[in-house]
Amino acid sequence: MTTPRRWWRGASFRFAALYALLFATSMAALGAFVYWSSIDVIERQVADTVQAELRGLAEQLAEQGLPRLREVIEQRSAPGGDTDNVYLLVGPGGRRLAGNLSTWPERARPDGEWLRLELYRTLEHTEPVEVGARAFELRGGARLLVGRDLGAREALRRTILEAVAWGLGGALLLGALGGWLLGRYLLSRVETVSRTSRRIVDGDLTQRVPLTGTGDAFDRLADNLNRMLARIETLMTGMRVVTDSLAHDLRSPLTRLRSRLEMALREHDLEHPEKPGGLGDADRQVLEQALSDVETIRGTFDSLIAIAEAEAGITRVGLARVGLDELVAELGELAEPLAEESHCRLVAEVAEPLAIAGHRQLLAQAISNLLDNALKYGCDGGEIHLVLAREDDRAVLSVADRGPGIPESARAAVLQRFVRLDESRSLPGSGLGLALAAAVAKLHESTFELQDNAPGLRVVWRFELAEG
User: Fold this and answer.
1) Of the candidates 378, 352, 350, 355, which has an alpha carbon nearest to the alpha carbon of residue 434?
2) DSSP string covering 346-374, please?
């Protein structure tokens, strides 16, 4: 029984998530580039503005001296001036001469280097502001600091961050939607191939992958698959013709040979070898052995054809609803006389009615082979258990004996054709019983296991129950 797949484990979700992640990562990288570029441009503009102010003040100082510089700074830092600019002129002892700062900042070294300071302005500012500034030492020990408020930079930073956040959210949404749509499209094309493959596995070799006519990579793949399928169908049809021909050409002479041997035994009074023209004991044994060999050859031939058809899935299209409980009960009744002849007891336990989708003839042949093997190798005067039970949504068939069993290392090998263990080579058989059962199990998409019965062998066969 297959468990339902969670939607977040599906390929569509993974594809959409990956697509959205890549899309959002690209947007984040682009936003970071815009952010740092914009911040850098703003800071360069502030630095250029400060530099222009310094050049103007330097000209005033050079032309008219410190009093004129003080007067200009007072004018520019007055309430009617540019409130984003910062000025401070102090005398040799550090006394404030002009400007909109109260004291000289400790971190402001008068070496002309670019500074970032958090300052308290004297005009209507109670919170510190970030200022970009330059400081110089003038002639006579006076010092001058000129800066500009970086609030515009901070406002731009917040604006860009908000835009990037909204952009990332939109990118994730659009990326997820686009990834989901693209994933659905791609997976629908893949599902078309998968659905066609499942029908072919079920035995319908006439199925082909449909083409959309776009000529894209999927169409080219579908075209190559269809060519391959056409070739496989041709080969399988040829194999079917060969097997049908073999079945007809070999079964017919084997059947005629069997009939002639039986007629020879009937026409001659084998029970009275002293009768003139009758057969002696030696001739009778030769005819009976020949008749037995013919039956063995026919059984081997039929088993090989059944294995080939089951492994190729040729008979899968013929699966129908089968009452497994009725079939097992019927086969158990037929095997009871054989168990008595082998001096053992067949214990059959069939539970409630259990139906599967199966091929009744192949199932009967496979289960009969399992019972024959148990009677042949695992009887020894004990019991053979044939059990059919329900396990959740599955039907479990088991055949258990008390014989020598099969070593775990050899259990995979005995499911192959013509493989027989050394201990069983002295007994009649062709080594096809378990191979046929394994092929029929594969045809029915069921599980087939060989287990230890301590002592003996237990064959456990699990089927999915038919719906309804």
Assistant:
1) 378
2) EEEEE-S--EEEE-HHHHHHHHHHHHHHH
* Main-chain dihedrals φ then ψ at residue 201, nearest 5 degrees: -60, -35
Which pair of tokens denotes residue 365? 């042949």
Beta strands in 365-468 (DSSP E): 383-391, 394-400, 447-452, 457-464
User: Which value, to the nearest 10 degrees, does the dihedral of the CA atoms of residues 135, 140, 141, 143 take?
Assistant: -30
**Closest to 268 in 3D by CA, of 257, 282, 284, 254:** 284
CA nearest 374: which of 355, 387, 363?
387
Per-residue pLDDT at 113: 85
User: Rounded distance, CA 459 to CA 385, Å?
Assistant: 10
* Cα–Cα distance, 366 to 399 (Å, whole number): 12
**Cβ–Cβ under 8 Å, residues 196 and 209:** yes
State which CATH number among 3.30.450, 2.30.30, 2.60.200, 2.60.40 fits the domain covering 12-155.
3.30.450
What is the distance between the alpha carbons of residues 99 and 122, in angstroms, rounded to a whole number?
9
| Radius of gyration (C-alpha) of the chain in whole angstroms | 47
Strands 115-119 and 96-99: unpaired
pTM of the model: 0.48
Count the Cβ atoms, other than its own, within 10 Å of residue 234: 11
Q: How far apart are CA 167 and CA 431, in angstroms?
A: 71
Task: Flag residues of the chain having pLDDT under 70.
Answer: 1-17, 19-20, 23, 120-126, 152-154, 156, 171, 175-176, 179-180, 182-183, 202-203, 239-249, 267-281, 283, 300, 303-304, 306-318, 381, 417-418, 420-431, 468
Please state, in angstroms and rounded to a whole number, the distance separating the CA atoms of residues 46 and 30. Answer: 24
Superfamily per CATH, domain 319-464: Histidine kinase-like ATPase, C-terminal domain (3.30.565.10)
Dihedral (Cα; 157, 158, 160, 163), 10-degree rounding: 170
How many angstroms separate the Cα of 249 from the Cα of each of 140, 243, 255, 291? 126, 10, 10, 19
Which two tokens mark 111?
């070496």
CA distance 230 to 208: 8
All structural domains of the chain with their residue ranges: 12-155, 217-310, 319-464
End-to-end CA distance of the chain: 15
pLDDT tens digits for range 407-420: 888 888 888 866 76
Do 319-464 and 12-155 fall under one CATH topology? no
Q: How far is C-alpha 353 from the geometric centre of its chain's CA atoms?
A: 36
- What is the total residue count of the chain? 468
